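Database export, one record per block. Field names are fixed; values are copied verbatim from the stored entry.
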Amino acid sequence: MWCFGRSFLRLEKYAIVYEFIFRCFVFWATSELALSISSRHCTLDLESDRAMTDPLGGEFPMNKITPFLWFDDNAEAVADYYLSIFPNGRKLNELRATEAGPGPKGSVIVLDLELEGQQVTFLNGGPYNKLSDAFSFVVRCENQQEIDMYWAKLTEGGSETACGWLKDKFGVSWQVVPVHMTKLVSHPAAMKAMMSMKKLDIAALEQAASQPQ
């Protein structure tokens, strides 16, 4: 009986040792898993940050549908010009020519940028295709001060057209309008007033829209 008890105590001692080893293993495995997840999370964050802070590395994701404009050989100058006008703008990706061309080595072929949240791509494609009024960007403004600012900057070296339309010095057409433009010109008097304007006057349009129909 005593021998049996002694064996039992020995087994119990081993059980305690095994339990201790098992607990250490669980702790180690859990720590490794947590470290792996944390490391992966940090890697993903780093990759995300790199795409945001190093956009010209070609990693920045583009929207499924974006405007694509053809220029002669001045796409980079056009992009820099717009980035000087719109405060929330940035270059995203670019493709430059190698020794394989086209164009001189190092010159821009394609450039992606973002203006006030709108992604757009510019191409240096040569003098074969010209821009036209059939395509335009619309700038929706909160107040008259904003309209005046964008109108002055975008018409510099360009030209005024009509009804809030203009053409900048690179031949790109723009519409500079109030945010509630559609609602305003749904009134016949406001529509008539707009047709007589070049740069839009919000106060005049609102006054016309307030008339009884």
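Remark 1: The chain has three domains: 2-53, 68-124, 136-209.
Remark 2: The two ends are 111 Å apart (CA to CA).
End of record.
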